[in-house]
Design a protein that fits this description.
ten-stranded mixed beta sheet; two-stranded antiparallel sheet; 6 helices; about 35% strand; elongated
């Protein structure tokens, strides 16, 4: 029977411009170079059994990305970060690793919200503060967006779980739901903009946390108290 392991990693710096698909390929190469016994699918074209968490938009950074890996045989979980980190490009760093049960639900299923740090470009601090206040006081924030080729109307207000503005910078820290209806950082910035200021855009964006709910308590899929890579923070800085 295969063993399953969960990896937490960061995506920082220039590699933020690498697409989700290309990052997946980088992981496949790193796992081969680290000679880890990754399990493969059966059939004509076998693929490594990897399952990523919620996709990160190209250009965004993250302190908390996740990857589940099926191994054909058990491995020393304490040694996973040290084996993988030298095989990954600069900007991808393993922060923690842990063994998880075989029947653990997928990351796509369990993550219910994410915490983001979002720079807003094109608005002064005072004006942005007013718009954040208006957003929080709004009963509804109805937008029209496209889903599966069709235009649909959604109320995004319930998905904005928290929203704060930095005391000095035009930078938001916000928790946005991912299900049943999620909000992307760009959509939040669009809500804060108005037709009179089309130059209001998202600047630097970083995902700080991904959250799931377990027995009513909010927690991360793999907290940093798990096996830590000793040099992950140094490489990320």
């Amino acid at each position: 029977m295969n063993s399953r392991y969960r990896i937490r990693f960061s995506k920082l710096g220039k590699i933020r411009f690498t697409s989700h698909r290309d990052v997946a390929r980088m992981w496949e190469r790193a796992l081969r170079r680290a000679t880890l016994p990754v399990a493969y699918t059966e059939g004509f074209s076998p693929h490594p059994k990897l399952s990523f968490g919620l996709a990160l938009s190209t250009g965004h950074e993250s302190f908390g990305e996740y990857l589940d890996i099926d191994m054909a045989e058990p491995v020393d979980v304490d040694g996973i970060p040290a084996r993988l980190d030298p095989c990954l490009p600069i900007g991808l760093d393993v922060q923690a690793a842990a063994e998880i049960e075989s029947g653990t639900p997928s990351l796509q299923q369990v993550v219910t919200s994410c915490t983001w740090r979002i720079e807003v470009v094109g608005l002064g601090h005072a004006e942005l503060a007013e718009r954040v206040d208006a957003c929080l006081k709004a009963d509804s924030l109805v937008v029209t967006r496209e889903r599966k080729g069709h235009k649909v109307t959604d109320d995004l207000r319930p998905a904005i779980l928290s929203l704060e503005l930095d005391d000095v910078r035009t930078e938001l820290v916000t928790e946005l739901a991912t299900q049943p209806r999620g909000v992307r950082p760009s959509e939040l910035v669009a809500i804060l903009a108005s037709p009179s200021d089309p130059d209001v855009l998202e600047g630097h964006v970083c995902r700080l946390h991904q959250w799931m709910s377990t027995d009513g308590a909010r927690e991360e899929p793999l907290p940093l108290r798990a096996t830590l890579a000793p040099h992950a923070e140094a490489r990320a800085s």
